[in-house]
């Protein structure tokens, strides 16, 4: 297992632990940090392991951070439909 995949697994474990802990802002600050760390990590995984493994890690991250993606989709839909 490469270093990038180990870091991606560590990111997933950290995301799940952060989701368990209570938060006053509905976990949004933690989600922003996870996104900020996860995007470069996804690039590193894709660089080291290829695009198929990168897609698998992308879908895993999307399943963990599904609410920010849902709100992003609603925002894009509002912006495009008027």
Strand content: under 5%
The first-to-last residue Cα distance is: 47 Å
Number of extended strands: 0
- How many helices? 4
Helix content: over 70%
- Which sequence of SSEs, written as H and E, runs from N to C? HHHH
Q: Report on the biggest sheet.
A: none
Mean pLDDT: 94
Report what the structure shows:
The protein contains four helices and no strands. It has 82 residues and is mainly α. The longest helix has 22 residues. The protein is flat.
Note the main attributes of this structure.
single chain, 82 residues, mainly alpha, 4 helices, 0% strand
Q: How does the SSE layout of this entry go?
A:
Elements (H helix, E strand, L loop, with lengths): L2 H18 L7 H22 L1 H14 L1 H16 L1
Helix pairs in contact: 1-2, 1-3, 2-3
Compact overview of the structure:
The chain is 85% helix and 0% strand. By secondary structure, it is mainly alpha-helical.
């Amino acid at each position: 297992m490469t270093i990038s995949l180990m870091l991606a697994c560590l990111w997933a474990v950290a995301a799940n632990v952060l989701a368990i802990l209570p938060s006053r802002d509905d976990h949004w600050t933690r989600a922003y940090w996870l996104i900020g760390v996860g995007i470069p990590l996804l690039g590193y995984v894709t660089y080291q392991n290829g695009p198929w493994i990168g897609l698998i890690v992308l879908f895993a991250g999307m399943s963990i951070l599904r609410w920010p993606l849902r709100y992003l989709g609603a925002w894009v839909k509002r912006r495009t439909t008027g």
